């Protein structure tokens, strides 16, 4: 009975040693996480906030450019309907031909009605000041 008790006690001591070893490993892993990994994670999170701000600005820029392109497309469509899509070489030829005075009056009044107003365009340098054009 004493021998079986000693064997049980030895086995129990072995299990306690294994348990203590596991606790030490968990403590060292936890201290490594707290002392090393958490500061690294915090630093990366701070860097990511900066990147997120840049992404938000870039999304706003892309949206603004999209609006400018849509407005330009509307203007081109309107100009095509107002002036037609007649090839420019024919237009030049027709403009060089002298027209009777009564036709010139109607053409000049039409030109006064549809004066060209250049659109306001954005400059990329205003949004990306560090970008400099590289000569080719």
From TrEMBL:
One of its GO terms (cellular component) is BLOC-1 complex. It comes from the Eukaryota. This is Biogenesis of lysosome-related organelles complex 1 subunit 4. It comes from Tinamus guttatus.
